[in-house]
Hints:
Blueprint: H1 2-35, H2 55-64, H3 68-82, E1 93-95, E2 112-116, E3 122-129, H4 131-136, E4 154-160, E5 167-171, E6 173-177, H5 181-184, E7 195-199, H6 200-204, H7 211-225, E8 233-240, E9 250-257, E10 263-269, E11 291-292, H8 307-310, E12 321-323, E13 326-328, E14 333-336, E15 341-343, E16 345-346, E17 353-356, H9 357-362, E18 366-367, E19 374-375
Parallel strand pairs: 15-18
Antiparallel strand pairs: 1-10, 2-3, 3-8, 4-5, 4-11, 6-7, 8-9, 9-10, 12-13, 13-16, 14-15, 14-17, 16-19
Amino acid sequence: xxxxxxxxxxxxxxxxxxxxxSTENTSSSQSSSSVESSISQSSTSSTSQSSTSSTSQSSTxxxxxxxxxxxxILSQLVQYTNAESAGPTKNYYYENGKAKLSSFENLSAGQTxxxxxxxxxxxxxxxxLTYAQFEASKGSRQGEPLDPPYWPSNQKxxxxxxxxxxxxxxxxxxxxxxxxxxxxGNASYTSPYNFTTGTRSQNVGANQDGGMRFxxxxxxxxxxxxxxxxxxxxxxxTPLYQGSEKIPRGSLVDIKSSDGVLDTxxxxxxxxxxxxxxxxxxxxxxxxxxxxxxxxxxxxxTAAAAPAxxxxxxxxxxxxxxxxGWTTAASGxxxxxxxxxxxxxxxxxxxxxxxxxxxxxxxxxxEGRSNGYARN
Length: 376
């Protein structure tokens, strides 16, 4: 009888310790969830709840997996976007230390993975990029941009950039690549989940080299400095949403090369100076020139332009000349690419808009760097 009593006492003590341990784990989970409360009030859902078929619970499970770093960045993005701000660089991006990559274990060189979250929104896009993909993507764009989930009506707006002192007049929204055509080629057009609804300025920044373009050019410049290299680049873009909003407040772009030369995280801000955006509907409170449907969008290399940009110049503005395969614009004229860079000589004029220099600059185009297809 005495042995049974001792055994019972020991068992009771063990159960008490187990309960204490369980309480500590729950407290830790709740503390972590409080960091993420700006994303979802129900982010304290347990792992076991993630298997529930309910849409709201499934969405909660997806949002609860956000990291502390992402929660911190989202909080910053909400502040910037609510303030219609271009961020600390005034160019719609800023850097945030080293890359924080995940889930690349099953991806090999040249492979991609595009997924949606529980609400059907574009989620993290991943790719292991190669120099061969970069080389193959040169020239004209490799496909047609796809509608991202919840693509809204589009409006023409004015975005006045504090960084440059210039004003962009054109469509607010672009079909923005998470992983760009210039890096991935035609594979970048294989899924709508590689696209998000991004403002013009989110796409290319205030000076055509900011926003998502800054991240893309980081890798492009690496490839240019290391031609024909066997090095690969892990590239990961994570759109960050506030609660159940349909349009991201911004994105985290994590980039790391296999030789360690590239190792950075870039935060991209999805806002537009002077425009108050509703991130659920896609509407904005700035005075719009007109409203159109989705046919007017673009990706980071195919940004939409105002009607004046789309029209070709008449003969009264001067005729181009051709020599040795190169077509050179007449005096005062330029060829404007889909990424809004202008050149004076090009190999394939059909891929460009032929505008006066003043028209190009007023539309926000900047002088491009000479390459194998276009030069200044």
